[in-house]
């Protein structure tokens, strides 16, 4: 008798404390469990913060509906992004053709300025060159911006975000409300300068922006500037 009592106490001491992880592991290892326990499935009630107690089947349907809704939103977002990218591709393709048709420096600067402010609907554009040019144009920055080139574009081709007040005055000769992108222009001969493009939208030029289209634009503009401005 004492032996049986001792065995029972020993078994009780070895009982496993059920945890969420153990139950989850059991159900994953035994997918037929609920098929063997149909009454349990029908009687289970889960607490829902909005609807009160719901059945397991209702909870599954609710989760599936939420998942489908999330997928629909993701697909809608991807389609919107794809549509925007397609529109940008068309705009940039048109811009490239206009730039390639330019025959002289002033025409090139006109095209750059108009394309930026009209075609791309941005606020403004300024071009700073490391070498002097005989041309005068509203888009040319006549102040020394060597320090901005060194501080913002020493190790990068692009800078997205906001500028300090002094930098805004230095480049644009006025305060800029919104965001800017600085684009370093260079070719095999060295650094040509940089383009500064502004947007009234503070979030338009974001460091997370994709640079594929801008990189193609940068190479073409660098080539044309060297050809039309710095060789004249």
TrEMBL record:
<protein>
    <recommendedName>
        <fullName>DUF484 family protein</fullName>
    </recommendedName>
</protein>
<dbReference type="InterPro" id="IPR029016">
    <property type="entry name" value="GAF-like_dom_sf"/>
</dbReference>
<dbReference type="InterPro" id="IPR007435">
    <property type="entry name" value="DUF484"/>
</dbReference>
<dbReference type="Pfam" id="PF04340">
    <property type="entry name" value="DUF484"/>
</dbReference>
């Amino acid at each position: 008798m004492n032996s049986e009592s001792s065995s029972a106490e020993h078994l009780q001491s070895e009982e496993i404390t059920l945890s969420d992880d153990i139950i989850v592991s059991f159900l994953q290892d035994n997918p037929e469990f609920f098929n063997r326990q149909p009454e349990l499935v029908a009687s289970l009630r889960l607490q829902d913060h909005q609807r009160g107690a719901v059945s397991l089947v209702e909870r599954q349907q609710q989760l599936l509906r939420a998942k489908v809704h999330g997928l629909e939103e993701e697909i809608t977002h991807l389609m919107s992004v794809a549509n925007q990218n397609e529109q940008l591709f068309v705009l940039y393709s048109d811009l490239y053709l206009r730039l390639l048709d330019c025959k002289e420096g002033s025409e090139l600067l006109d095209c750059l300025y108009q394309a930026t402010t009209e075609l791309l609907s941005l606020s403004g554009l300024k071009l700073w060159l490391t070498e002097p040019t005989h041309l005068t144009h509203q888009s040319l920055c006549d102040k020394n911006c060597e320090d901005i080139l060194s501080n913002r574009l020493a190790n990068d081709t692009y800078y997205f975000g906001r500028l300090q007040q002094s930098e805004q005055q230095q480049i644009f000769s006025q305060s800029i409300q919104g965001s800017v992108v600085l684009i370093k222009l260079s070719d095999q001969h060295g650094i040509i300068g940089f383009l500064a493009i502004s947007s009234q939208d503070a979030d338009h030029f974001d460091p997370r922006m994709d640079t594929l289209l801008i990189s193609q634009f940068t190479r073409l503009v660098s080539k044309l500037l060297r050809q039309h401005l710095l060789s004249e």
